[in-house]
Amino acid sequence: MALAAAVSSVGLYTFRNYEPDPSKYPVRGVDVSHHQGPVDWPRVARHGVAFAYLKASEGRDHRDDLFDRNWRGARAAGLRVGAYHYFTFCSSGRAQAANFLAAVPREADALPVAVDLEFGGNCGSRPAGPALARELAVFLAMVEAREGRPAILYVTPEFLAAYRAVLPDRSLWRRSILHAPARGEPWVLWQFHNRGKVDGVTGPVDISVFAGDRRAWARFGGQARVGH
Fold first, then answer.
1. 52 assigned to some structural domain
2. 19 in active site
3. Domain total in the chain
4. Angle, CA of 62, 60 and 142, to the nearest 5°
5. How far is 210 from 212, CA to CA, in rounded Å?
6. Which candidate in 40, 68, 118, 185 is catalytic?
7. Number of alpha carbons in the 13 Å side-chain half-sphere of residue 40
8. Which regions in the chain score pLDDT beneath 70?
9. Is 62 inside a domain boundary?
10. What is the value of pTM for the model shown?
């Protein structure tokens, strides 16, 4: 039993402290919502975090209670900041875009908008591929018209497998916990942890890395296919 406990302890330590090779992926960031509670952004910045994606909205009418506070705090701490929208199956793309655009300020130096596409917590009924593609296209057209650049699509492995054929041509933010995304699908951001530890954030937090080096990051605006 002592051996089993030791193995379990080592496994838990490895899980909590997993990080891709920082010499290969030197730029990392977090994504947060109200679930993390108040964040101490200066401490987050000192922890080596370069960027933050903040939940702004979900569906046609939900707004994240801490978005405005997080937006101001992360920017003031010197992080590059972007907003994301959780896209639901039970609201039109037009209504969701209107909700997002009303929640997020237009900032020229913000990171590209990210659209969270996943099954977890979504509406129970999954749309057929053409129906999803149609509503997502409406959302992207409205949001990108204001932003003047392409959005990024955050995709889980399950979502990508189900809808790969109908997703529009956009840079991908891949969720692949504790291991690199499979080859064959280019990506610009990789979420490698969903229960990471970052100083300044209470409790677990999602952590991601950028596909390129620091020079590529300085130029990053969401248009280029970087690295993978």
1. yes
2. no
3. 1
4. 120
5. 6
6. 118
7. 9
8. 1-16, 222-228
9. yes
10. 0.91
